[in-house]
Amino acid sequence: xxxxFQFEKGTSFGEWLHQQMHEAIHFETEAWAIDRVRRVEExxxxxxxxxxxxxxxxPWLEVVTAFTAPGRYIYFSRRLYERCASDEEVAFVxxxxxxxxxxxxVNLFAGLAxxxxxxxxxxxxxxxxxxxxxxxxxPQKECDADRHGLDLCLAAGxxxxxxxxxxxxxxxRALDMGDEDMVYGPDKESDDELDENANWKTKAQIWAWxxxxxxxxIRDRRQMVQKYLHKRMARSAFR
Length: 239
Known about the structure:
Radius of gyration: 18 Å
CATH architecture of the largest domain: 2-Layer Sandwich
Structural class: mainly alpha
Mean pLDDT: 82
Helix content: 55-70%
Oligomer: single chain
């Protein structure tokens, strides 16, 4: 069930953020975009009660990102949305954000919500909310959300390998920006820095990188969830 937090009588953080964003940002209204995202969100949440379903909206943010918050909304930036060529890529983005709710990650905002809304210029915070989310969750929760999100996609009948093509989109965007560090992380030759069997030196290296950059290297993130998918496929083959 979507989580939200009351900071004033009759007001919730999720609704406050939603209102602030709608006052300051244009949201996509074209039928082709809305119909597609509704089709995917319905398929991913087909087994959920209406009160437990999240709603995806497409703000015209320049940053290529998606994020969610306490409440019932998922924000899928137009710049990322327009780069997703298939329903599978869209589904993986949405499922990842649903996973943050299913896994209770949004509960981390419980103590921050009233403080955020009382800050001077708090309305400007809506533009940077995705950055706070990224730093607050950290690499482990992001990997957990990738795996759970992939589970949701597979349960909805999407092709897992096609879902992971989203990482090609993210990688190309980073390379277009000239940010190889975002793609490869601290070791260009390795995609296993986040593997549970990595040695202590490798783990220390990625820990330092993560706290400097605030997010996961794209290649490492892809490697982790791809291994998870292959294990699932192997288990299914033996049933």
